[in-house]
Amino acid sequence: MKKKVLSAILCIAMVATMLIGCTTESPTSSDDSSSEDSGSEGGGKKIGITIQNIENAYWAGVMSKLQEILDENGYEATIMGCEENASTQISQIENFITSGCDLIMVHPHDADAVEASCKSAMDAGIKVMCWDNEMENTTANWVLDNTELGKEIGKTAANFINEHFTADNKAEVCVIGKPDTQVLLERQQGIEAGLEENCEDNYEIVATIEGVVNNEVQSQAETVLQAHPDCKVWVGVGAGAMIGSNTALLAHYGGAGSIPEDCGVITTDVTSEQLDALQAGDEAVRAIVGFEGSNTDTAQACFEMFEKILNGEFDDVSGDEKNVYRPTMEINMDNIEEIQAGM
Question: CB–CB of 180/289 below 8 Å?
Answer without folding.
Answer: no
